[in-house]
Amino acid sequence: MLIPIGTGDCSHLDAPVALPSSVVLGEERVIVGRELAGTVTLALGVPTGALAHRAGRWCCRGAASGFDSPPAFPVSGTHAMIDSAAGAFYLTDLSSTNGTFLDGEELTAGTPAKLAPGMEIVFGDEFLCKFVFEEIPDSELA
Fold first, then answer.
1. How far apart, in Å, are the Cα atoms of 36 and each of 13, 39, 43, 67?
2. Which of 25, 47, 69, 128 has the highest count of CB atoms within 10 angstroms of its CB?
3. Are 94 and 81 within 8 A, CB to CB?
């Protein structure tokens, strides 16, 4: 199970964004990305309304002059993958822009890392997309 532990700080955005819910992992592959589309099965994107387009420029709260192009989203279109095999879970970064971190270390794209209970995972944005991995017995999920 992925349990959200981010602070929820949205000061780097133009509007508040809710923290994601806990995610129960099963035997199916999970593709983490910005929005539910294509192969993405877990969306952790910042809604379009959280970013402002003012006077022809993209702006985030605190940005004095904005940006000429859309800002970089914290989570890539297809950011990371979680697989299960032989009773274990593995996390792989899919060449994301802002990185996938496991216990503070950035994963090398394409190289699976085995998850263990208590490990912290960050998908690009440590305030909104930070989780702790825990193994929850099936009996407690029912």
1. 21, 8, 5, 26
2. 128
3. yes
The structural domains of the chain, with segments of one domain joined by +, span: 2-141
Domain 2-141 belongs to what architecture? Sandwich (2.60)
21-64: pLDDT as tens digits: 899 898 889 999 888 778 898 888 655 444 443 444 433 433 44
Q: Show the 3-state SS of 34-62.
A: CCCCCCCCEECCCCHHHCEEECCEEECCC
* 86, amino acid identity: A
Give how far Cα 2 sits from Cα of 24, 70, 120, 121, 123, Å.
7, 30, 9, 9, 12
Chain centroid, CA 30 distance in Å:
12
3-state secondary structure of 125: coil
Q: For the segment 99-118, what is each residue's pLDDT rounded down to a tens digit?
A: 999 999 999 999 999 999 99
